[in-house]
Amino acid sequence: MSSGYPQVNIGIFGGSGLYALLDAYEEVHVETPYGPPSDAFMVGTLNGKSVAFLPRHGRTHSIAPHKINYRANLWAMQALGVTGIIAPSAVGSLQAAIHPGSMVVCDQYVDRTTGRADTFYDGDQVIHVSPADPYCPLLREHAIAAATKAGITVHQNGTLVVINGPRFSTKAESKWFTSNGWHVIGMTGYPEAMLARELAMPYVNISLVTDFDAGVVAGVEPVSHSEVMRVFAENIGNVRNVLSLMIADFPDTTSSPARRALDGHH
Q: How far is the C-alpha of 56 from the C-alpha of 152, rounded, in Å?
């Protein structure tokens, strides 16, 4: 692992609307064995905590979900010393009771992606890491408390189905996901969470609901990219508030089960 990088406490995957959180930041370029991360990291402080932001899609939103170098992004977070990752993302709702503008702090995911490099163990070292409970319970509880304090409707658990993108779902696919009891749908949640687990880094997903996917459960028009961006822009203040509250009293993650993901393997 490379050394000499500034060491930070909290890692956040997010977009350009989130840089405004930091009082001041420096750009840090991290080199990884997996190629370059999505962009330079914005490293700075907020509420007295050291924070590293990385825009998943690059700062000009030029990297499609299926083209993101997830391994480089996660390896770089570890090189920066991150002890917990907050991962907000825009999602579609698959259930009528989960409305645009609300948040879901997921406790499970279902991987429906294809062709993504999703493990660090693809050499001659065979290691099986369990993602049975893929998100850190300490950070999930912390996120729920922050969203509640911010006055946002927050669903305290849910299953995120991750599709490959860049296309959205057909109505048949969306109906199938709904009938399976899954709650929200997105394109970036996997393998991000799994790679964090392989590096024993606690990770929490905060899903911001922007739409009703193909419109099936709510009897509305199918989602469009412009509508997703419009609702996300309207709610970026809510995302910033939740992140700010989480960072202010970020928990010690030493006791997180994620930290023990590799126990017995080394």
A: 24
Instruction: Quote the CA–CA distance of 12 and 41 in Å, as a whole number.
Output: 10
Q: What is the pLDDT of residues 31-87, one digit of tens each?
A: 999 999 999 999 999 888 999 999 999 988 889 999 999 999 999 999 999 999 999
Q: What angle do CA 191, 111, 215 make, to 5 degrees?
A: 120
178: pLDDT strictly greater than 80: yes
* The token pair that represents 214 in the structure block: 């193909």
Pick the closest to residue 104 from 183, 180, 31 (CA basis).
183
Would you list the domain boundaries of the chain? 10-258
From residue 26, give the alpha-carbon distance in Å to each of 1, 23, 44, 45, 84. Answer: 21, 11, 6, 10, 20
For the chain, what is the HEC assignment?
CCCCCCCCCEEEEECHHHHHHCCCEEEECCCCCCCCCCCCEEEEEECCEEEEEEECCCCCCCCCHHHCCHHHHHHHHHHCCCCEEEEEEEEEECCCCCCCCCEECCCEEEEECCCCCCCCCCCCCCCCCCCCCCCCHHHHHHHHHHHHHCCCCEECCCEEEEECCCCCCCHHHHHHHHHCCCCEEECCCCCHHHHHHHCCCCEEEEEEEEECCCCCCCCCCCCCHHHHHHHHHHHHHHHHHHHHHHHHCCCCCCCCHHHHCCCCCC
Q: Which residues are tagged catalytic?
A: 211, 213
pLDDT at 43: 94
CATH, domain 10-258, list 3.40.50.1580, 3.40.50.300, 1.10.1740.10, 3.90.1150.10: 3.40.50.1580
